[in-house]
């Protein structure tokens, strides 16, 4: 697992923050790192005179040459490292579509990228490229928030991992991928489930579509007990594989707030979650819970888009 790692780059130092992390993973798996940059052609408005078109063609040629030099130079700096093979690809087209396609063509089993970065065209990644890749990728996406130094992550990887679950088989599909990553550094895991003190009492033709009420006393205790029993069942399966696993039920009205608060309290160095879990109104979807967690944490986040109809087993 994780022998083919794709690193999208936009030419910025922020995006390069992902490189030592990908390198650290590849070193432990005897894998390879694929550096990918997508050239975005400069659009020539129809109103421009034809005489100006050669200028833009020359600009495109020069820009692509510089991008190729950038990738080649970065590959050369990394290629001397033992046990890590590095190559690069310069592609052209829609950024998200091209990155997803490249990951498939390269038989990538992990994409490592930053949640933001700005290249020559001032492209913002958070909410666009990173979000789009995480929505569409068939393989896990490890998203990093750039800080002053990525080397400690690259060297030690992740040892205190928070895995968020919602009780659904779809959400449990993250387990295979996060334990594969955690095995590289002997990580310990905390399985967490957020229980809301608000319960659905019915449905109504309102914009929200739901009628809710507060759960108190025995009712809330039962919700927590059910969540604890579920988490312990999953933990028992992981412990049977020799993994160090704890469980925690968090009572919080907003799922993302509960995850973020607990992650800070536990000082986790990775949050792992599926981009969706349950169906219906409690669905965990990128753009809601996962998006809020991404924007609210400085910890790396491992996201996986579950396959419908496949259980965690």
Q: How would you describe this structure to a colleague?
A:
With 313 residues, this protein is an alpha/beta fold. The protein has 2 domains: 138 residues, Rossmann fold, CATH 3.40.50; 147 residues, HUPs (Rossmann fold, 3-Layer(aba) Sandwich). It contains 11 helices and 12 strands. The strands form 2 sheets. Strands 3-2-1-4-5-12-11-6-7-10 form a 10-stranded mixed beta sheet, sandwiched between helices. A two-stranded antiparallel sheet has the order 8-9. α4 runs parallel beside α5 and α10 packs parallel to α11. The protein is elongated, with a radius of gyration of 22 Å. The chain starts with a strand and ends in a 9-residue tail after the last strand.
Terminal CA distance reads 18 Å
CATH homologous superfamily of the largest domain, by name? HUPs
Mean pLDDT: 82
- CATH second-level architecture of the largest domain: 3-Layer(aba) Sandwich
Radius of gyration: 22 Å
Structural class: alpha/beta
Shape: elongated
Q: Could you name the CATH topology of the largest domain?
A: Rossmann fold
What descriptors fit this protein?
41% helix; 313 residues; single chain; Rossmann fold; alpha/beta; ten-stranded mixed β-sheet; 11 helices
Topology:
Layout: E1 4-9, H1 13-16, H2 18-29, E2 32-39, H3 53-79, E3 85-92, H4 95-105, E4 110-114, H5 125-136, E5 141-144, H6 151-156, E6 160-164, H7 169-172, H8 174-182, E7 188-195, E8 198-202, E9 211-214, H9 217-239, E10 244-251, H10 255-266, E11 270-274, H11 289-296, E12 301-304
